[in-house]
Amino acid sequence: MKKRILVAPLNWGLGHATRCIPIIRGLLDHNFTPIIASDGAALSLLKKEFPNLSSVELPSYDITYAKNSKLFKLKLLKDSPKLINAIKEEKKAVAAILKHNDIAGIISDNRLGVRHKNVPSVFLTHQINVLSGSTSWLSSKMHQKFIKKYNVCWVPDVEEDVNLSGKLGHIASFDIPIKYIGPLSRFNPSAHPIKNNLMVLISGPEPQRTLLEKKLLEALKNYPGKIVMVKGVLEKEQTIETNGQMTIYNFMTSALLEKTINESALIISRSGYTTIMDLSKLNKKAFFIPTPGQFEQEYLAKRLMEMNLVPSCKQDEFTLKNLKDVENHNGLKAFNFQIDFKELFNLF
Question: Pick the residue with more confidence: 45 or 81?
Answer without folding.
Answer: 45
